Amino acid sequence: MMYWQHILDRIQNSQKVxxxxxxxxxxxxxxxxxxxxxxxQDGFIFGxxxxxxxxxxLVEEAQQLLLTENPPIFIKxxxxxxxxxxxxGMICSGExxxxxxxxxxxxxxxxxxxxxxxxxxxxxxLSLLPSSFGFSDKRLVNQFEYQINSTEDWVFEEQIGYxxxxxxxxxxxxxxxxxxxxxxxxxxxxxxxNREKLNTLENNSFAHQKIIVDYNNIQDxxxxxxxxxxxxxxxxxxxxxxxxxxxxxxxxxFVGVLGxxxxxxTMWKDLLKDGFTKxxxxxxxxxxxLSIKSETPEEIAVSIAAQIIQVKNGSRN
Length: 317
Description:
The chain is an alpha/beta fold. It has two domains: 2-161, no CATH class; 165-312, Rossmann fold, CATH 3.40.50. It has nine helices and 14 strands. The strands form three sheets. Strands 3-2-1-5-4 form a five-stranded antiparallel β-sheet, with helices on both faces. The chain has a five-stranded parallel β-sheet with strand order 12-11-10-13-14, with helices on both faces. The protein is elongated. The protein starts with a helix and ends in a 5-residue tail after the last helix. The mean pLDDT is 92.
């Protein structure tokens, strides 16, 4: 969201900015589809299309073009295999194609629409073409859809918005740290608690939504699906157990419970006694987070983020 806000701030001030977007990549390219960087007329740079010497060269090119009256829209293919024709100077053996779009005062409405979409938790489609930079409420089947026939005939579309949602059940100190980190990771973050006037929940400025609920009804607030992640971290063993009971039959990409191994062993014993199966319990990540001897809320948040990223990207260890 900060990326688009930086763009809006500059074009509202009658500056030009170049938006660089990776629209295709293969092999070990440092940039991946959707990576973005803005290069401002005032020298400001934000984001990345992969870093290193190749990015430095692209930034220099964009800065020079911003000095011209009508900076062009174009794409540039980079081959990361050392010093060859069209090579980037890098040796990681991948390729990437970067689109250059110059935005100005005329694009304020488009960028504002993207920010409004992100702020509301909705989704839309960014459309990049050789002649335009647009945004609409169209929904894509995949996050990215693109076709490159030539340097003059290509299209790139990207779903903009929060594709994944993290539901944090428990608004304590760890919930705050987890909220902050996952917002930076591009998740829509919703925090629940059953306590009124909880200081840590009220002061959580990172979460997109904060909701006071009765945990007996928690299942009514969490959407099932492959883009829903649940982190259970209430302040009571009984509440943790209640939330697990309410959610265990539902389908989510990830469900994890914060707690010591001793606490969770007791919880699992009680749940098995009440008829829940070992297979159902084995699907829950408990204790939540990768084992990195984390102690502070911030360290715990990192361990949870690492585990959820691992699951999101297709592996479970």
